[in-house]
Design a protein that fits this description.
mainly alpha
């Protein structure tokens, strides 16, 4: 179970993130959030630093996608 989840997270990291529509970005953001929450459950029991590193990288991807979704701030 946990190995499947880790592999799914690593595959998610390798995806191409170019030329996405807004609906694709929303989907990616939601999927990243779900993966992070599931990995966090495993991390709470195992305390494995590798899992924490994966969660950090996924969070970075999620933040970049959400930043793009919100658009540039108006000055």
């Amino acid at each position: 179970m946990e190995l499947e989840l880790i592999n799914k997270a690593l595959e998610f990291e390798q995806r191409k993130m170019r030329g996405l529509s807004n609906s694709d970005r929303i989907e990616i953001s939601r999927e990243a959030k779900a993966l992070i929450l599931d990995l966090n459950k495993i991390y709470k029991t195992k305390k494995d630093q590798k899992i924490m590193d994966i969660m950090k990288r996924l969070t970075t991807i999620k933040q970049k996608v959400e930043k793009r979704l919100k658009g540039a701030p108006l000055v």
